[in-house]
Amino acid sequence: MNLTDRVVVITGGAGGIGTALGRRFAAEGAAAVVLADLAADAARAAAEAIGPVASGAGLDVTDEAAVRALVEETERRHGRIDLFCANAGVATGGGIDAPDADWDRAWRVNVLGHLHSARAVLPGMLSRGQGHLLLTCSAAGVLTAVGDAPYTATKHAAVGFAEWLAITYRDAGIRVSALCPQGVDTPMLADGLAEGHLGARVIAASGTILTPDQVADAVVAGLAEERFLILPHPEVADYARRRAEDPDGWQAGLRKLVRKLRASFPQS
Ligand SMILES: NC(=O)c1ccc[n+]([C@@H]2O[C@H](COP(=O)([O-])OP(=O)(O)OC[C@H]3O[C@@H](n4cnc5c(N)ncnc54)[C@H](O)[C@@H]3O)[C@@H](O)[C@H]2O)c1
């Protein structure tokens, strides 16, 4: 897919990776870019900064009726949705003791948010025999987010769901991509680093921290090649291969890194 004249919706579009995608798609000539986010005012401000091609809207992706309404409204205004980026996501920073409310929120945003998006947007795409779904998952969905059990479990579920969609709908003309970045310089990671979270420090120690614009570059290239797995950090492919070939050796290496980081920051 190239982005010229495309109608695009991006959830979690108020900042970070979502806004960078919107900015980049607009620069590539998209016909309309809808930034939808729980933070409605921030989504509108981000859209205004992009320009007239963009618009902002309030949306809670855990509310299926609201996702459906946004899709219907976009199709009514712009005639279709060519690319739907299900990008909203939440981290918790918790382990097995994280409250059930955190596990529930991670499940509802990081997994059911993708399901609601697919249910709402696929009928229109299938009727036209074309369309592209981009699910922002995470490297945590093919590896492990040390320090965040709900994030790890739900991002693995998101990658599994994306793969299921890709296999099921490819022959009907639908393309599906799973975006799996590692560290990206957005509030999600920056807050964790500022608070000294072990998980954030493992990410920082495991590879380059990209800017959201660099992630957008990787997405545009991945969409152009209609790739399923979009890895802005190429090293993640190598980590995933090593993990698949030797799970015990991979885990031993990660535990060694965690011990080293804990020794230098005993408070974490
Ligand atoms: N920053 C990273 O290092 C990193 C790495 C891998 C994957 N990701 C993923 O990238 C995506 C974007 O995150 P980001 O890094 O830009 O962080 P971010 O926190 O800036 O963006 C997440 C956005 O999702 C929105 N959101 C949260 N719950 C929502 C809901 N219920 N409905 C609608 N919007 C909701 C937030 O308001 C926020 O604007 C997420 O799915 C995240 O898990 C981030």
TrEMBL record:
The keyword Oxidoreductase applies. It holds the Pfam family adh_short. It comes from the Bacteria. PROSITE patterns: ADH_SHORT (PS00061). Keywords: Oxidoreductase. Gene3D superfamilies: NAD(P)-binding Rossmann-like Domain. One of its GO terms (molecular function) is oxidoreductase activity. InterPro entries: NAD(P)-bd_dom_sf, Sc_DH/Rdtase_CS, SDR_fam. Belongs to the short-chain dehydrogenases/reductases (SDR) family. This is NADP-dependent 3-hydroxy acid dehydrogenase YdfG. It comes from Micromonospora marina.
